[in-house]
Every structure is written in C-alpha cells, then in structure tokens.
Amino acid sequence: MSSTISGPAAAALNSLTPSQLKFIQMLPKAELHAHLNGSIPISVLQELAQEFAHLSDSGLTSDAIEEGIAKLRNGVVLDEIHDFFNLFPAIYALTSNPSNLRRATRAVLEQFLDGENPQCAYLELRSTPRETPEMNRRQYVQAILDEVERYPPSKTNLIVSLDRKMTGDVLRECVEIAIGLKAEGKRVVGIDLCGDPTAGDMGVLEEHLSRARAAGLGITLHIAETPANTAAETIQLLSYTPDRLGHATFLNDEAKSIVLDKKMCIEICLTSNLLCKTVSSLDAHHIRYYLQNDHPIVICTDDTLPFRTSLVGEYALLLAASPLGLGLTQDEVKRVAEMGIGATFQSRLNPPDAVRGTGQARKVETKARGG
Ligand SMILES: CNc1ncnc2c1ncn2[C@@H]1O[C@H](COP(=O)(O)O)[C@@H](O)[C@H]1O
C-alpha cells in the first residue's frame, strides 16, 4: 500500500524505524471516515476508464474522464477546498452502474481490510446515494451493501451520506432507504452529512436526522470544515446531537465546550486538511487541542485517492518526529487507536459481532470459502 502513497504521509512513513512501522501496522485501528468514491484505488479507476467506451451515457466524454484520472494519478494540487469537489464528476462517470459500483466497492474494501498487513481492523465506509440512468438510489446503496456484507459485521458496515446540496425530498428518500434497509437487517449503521462545506441550508436537516436517530442509526456530520462556515451554522448542527463530527476544524469556544461536554468524537483527517489548505501545518492542527483535552478522536483518511494516503500513513503522521509528524509516543498513539475503536457505530449502537439474519451469515461463509 505504501507504494501508492505520496506527500506528507509518505514522508512521515519513510522516517519511521522498522519497529515503529511494525508497531503501527499491528495496532488495531478503526477507519470511520472514508468516502467510497474518494477511496477507489487508481489502478481500478484506470481499468474502469479503459472500459468507459462501452458504458452508457454519463454526460462526460472519454477525454474528460482521461483528464480527470490523469490529475488523480499525478497528484492533485488544490488552491483551496472548493477545487476538491471538481474531481468527482470523472470518478462518478465510472461508478454509475451497479456492476462498476460493486467493483469499485470491492476494491476499496480490499484496500482497507485485506492483505498481509490490513490497513485497519474495522471500516465504516460511507457513500452518497446517487440516482443514475442505470440505478436508483436504493439500488445504489444495495449494490454497495452486497459487497460490504461479504465481510462479517465486526469488520465493516455502511454509513449513508447525505449531501449538503440535496433537496428535502431527496434527504427524506435517502434517510428512508437507510432506515428501511436497516430494518431488513442490512448493514447500514449510520448517516453522514457531507459535500461542498458552504452549500445548502442546514435547517432542513433536523427532521431527517431525528428520524434516523429514532431508528437507531448513528449520526456523523461534517462540521466547520472551512473558515466560511458560520458559528450559527455550527451551533445549529451541534443541536442535532451528532455522535461524531467530521473535521470540526473551525470551532469557536462555545462550540468547543458543547463538543467536549457531549464527548462527540472528532474524525481527524490530517493529510486531507493539509492538502485542502484548511490547516496550515501539523503543528497548527486542531488535533493538538483534542489530545490536550483527552477528548475522543479517530484518525481517518477521508479520500485515499486524491490525497494519496493510507491509514497506516495517517498514523505515521502521529508517531513521526516533528516536523514530519506530531511526535507522539507509542503509548499515546495506542491510546488514540483505542479511542477510534471505541467510537464505531457498530460498538455503540449494535450488539458486538451481531450477525442479524441468516442471509448475512451465508454471505460471510461464502467469503470465508473464497467465493
Ligand atoms: C475533503 N473533505 C470532504 N468534505 C466534504 N465532503 C467530502 C469530502 N471528501 C469527500 N466528500 C464527499 O464525498 C463524495 C465522494 O464520495 P461518495 O460519492 O459519497 O462515495 C464527494 O462528492 C463529497 O460529496
């Protein structure tokens, strides 16, 4: 995995001694903030792009796709976070039918969970239901679940993302899909809010999030990701009592005291914040504030594809000596990893290792047999 990473995480990783690297690899880690379409291995995306000519209409030309893939392959340079969202049309053109979406999902799951030294012990993968000419939103989520459920629930589950630009009707539909699938015993464990951090009106979310919570789903919200996110919006999102928060980079004192009081776990994505330029250096990163306050955090990758990182790479940023890393001790890094394991929706909201329904148990057996 380390061969495909580059930038700050690779530099930190390369500075570690073999025993430090082994320590990170062996540490049980949870990845709780990984966007599916931002985590597809570049090799798989390239394969899908080569087959693109045979795909049905996606609204993009092969040249536009090729250009998008080339950018991702060579490493993206973002002037600011809004540039980031322009990367997705090329990726979406390649994951717009159930079969390609399943291939992409399988590759993402393998990237995190398989191999001699898996990146993590547990993955909560997230994705935004998308309607395309070839699938509706429910079929989109079902296609991902078909792959997720090849693994046991102790390894991976799905979070359904809501995009800040969604209309009330689409928000309702997505939450209903998540609740309905959960009620059928499918492995949806939570709801996320993501997308362009300055888009949308957050007032429309309340009723949808309460329904999700009442149905036993965990709630995580991208919050205060940019300086343009207002204090009023941040307080409004906190009033929906999320269990976890994505980024939480620009919290004022009032927001910080709510977060600390309610022990809302912060999903920290170091490389993502550096490359999106919402944080100027590791030294200035808000992770320091949460570490000082012994507040629950979980270290995550966000989007391994554009940010060319890995979960082991993100942990290397904790352990490596300054200025390449934060210079935490191994005991401190171990404590951070334990906090992450304790913050999963699986552990909070579901009985441990529950395999609900024989259908799931069968799929897990199939995987174990190599099917
Ligand atoms: C940089 N930090 C971020 N902030 C906000 N939203 C982000 C994000 N990184 C990814 N996404 C959201 O996830 C989608 C891709 O995965 P899915 O199609 O859902 O699987 C992006 O289109 C964006 O809406």
UniProtKB/TrEMBL annotation:
GO biological process, one term: inosine biosynthetic process
Keyword presence, rRNA-binding: no
Catalysis: reaction(s): N(6)-methyl-AMP + H2O + H(+) = IMP + methylamine
Coiled-coil blocks: none
Compositionally biased tracts (Basic and acidic residues): 362-371
UniProt cofactor(s): Zn(2+)
Annotated spans, Disordered: 352-371
Any one GO MF annotation of this record: adenosine deaminase activity
Record keywords: Hydrolase, Metal-binding, Nucleotide metabolism, Zinc
InterPro entries linked: A_deaminase_dom, Ado/ade_deaminase, Metal_Hydrolase
Annotated Adenosine deaminase domain residues: 28-346
Sequence similarity: Belongs to the metallo-dependent hydrolases superfamily. Adenosine and AMP deaminases family.
UniProt-listed PANTHER family: ADENOSINE DEAMINASE, ADENOSINE DEAMINASE-LIKE PROTEIN
The protein's name: Metallo-dependent hydrolase
